[in-house]
Amino acid sequence: MNKIITCVDGSVYSEAVCRAGIWAAKKLDKVILFLHAIEKNNSAKVEDLSGAIGLGARSSLLNEMASLDEQRSKLASKIGKEILEDAYQLAQQQGCEQVEKTQRHSDIAEAVDDLEASARLIVIGRSGESHGQDFKALGSHIEQILRQVHTPVLITNKTFREPSSFMLAYDGRETADKAVKRIIEGGLLHKMTCHLVTVKNNQTALKDKFQLTEKLLIEHGFEVKSSFLDGNIFASLMDYKANHEVDMLVMGAFSHSKFAHAFLGSNTLKMIEKTELPLVILS
């Protein structure tokens, strides 16, 4: 677990992703590995049309299509290598001494899965290059990656600046307790102010857990600003974020239990979709 896997794709999120990966690599003193994945082409393959005699397909046209596919593949590879080289140069300019880059011919979720064994953190933009600059919905790859990996994931929006504070959305569940443990042991969020925020729910002894978590974080050197709130979970968290100086959001990952999976999953995804701040998901 020595590498900051930083996913770059030429989208409007790429520079922010690079800068977030560089920040994490320097903070943790880890290798930064820039990853570019060339997505598989979903269009009909040439060989699928070889028997389409009824459509008047000619061998010369099929050969031309194959040639165009090959050219597109080569161009995509060349563009990806240039994106990786730009990211590599930026990391070196920003003082990263251990920088690597790799290109994979697969979708991004598959590429991340292949590399996860060596990952300390995965950094990715909230949408990919296939979406326009004004695209506001969540990239489909995000939820897939969050559900398959066991490594912390840092999701960026279009800009990134070095954070000095974070908001931890604590709900008293097992995933939240694991997230607190990761925060204490991980190092990425050390020396940052922690806004510990809990919204009342149906968890047993939630107030007691909240107070114990606050005490635990303080004992491990965090400056903690704590708030125990009533109301709609998502709305309360968004209101708190808007009214306080918060640079980054932190949440627990999806639970394996079906009930908690649906509960936490929906709020986690809403937070990713609606916030412009970087968000760390801890499993």
What does this 3D model show about the protein?
The protein is of the alpha/beta class. It folds into two domains: 3-40 and 78-156, 3-Layer(aba) Sandwich (Rossmann fold), CATH 3.40.50.620; 165-278, Rossmann fold (3-Layer(aba) Sandwich). The chain contains eight helices and ten strands. It has a ten-stranded mixed sheet with strand order 3-2-1-4-5-10-9-6-7-8, with helices on both faces. Helix 3 (108-115) runs parallel beside helix 4 (140-148). The radius of gyration is 22 Å and the shape is elongated. Mean pLDDT is 84; it is low at 42-46, 128-138 and 256-264.
Supply the CATH superfamily name of the largest domain: HUPs
Q: Could you give the distance between the termini?
A: 15 Å
Give the C-alpha Rg. Answer: 22 Å
**The biggest beta sheet, please?**
10 strands, mixed
Assign the CATH architecture of the largest domain. 3-Layer(aba) Sandwich
Report the sheet-strand fraction: 15-25%
Query: Could you state the order of secondary-structure elements as H and E?
Result: EHEHEHEHEEHEHEHEHE
Mean pLDDT: 84
Overall body shape: elongated
Low-confidence stretches: 42-46, 128-138, 256-264
Name the strands of the widest sheet in spatial order: 3-2-1-4-5-10-9-6-7-8
CATH topology of the largest domain: Rossmann fold
Question: What is the C-level CATH assignment of the largest domain?
Answer: Alpha Beta
Note the total helix count.
8
Amount of helix: 40-55%
- Derived from helix and strand composition plus strand pairing, the structural class reads alpha/beta
Number of beta-strand segments? 10
Number of domains: 2
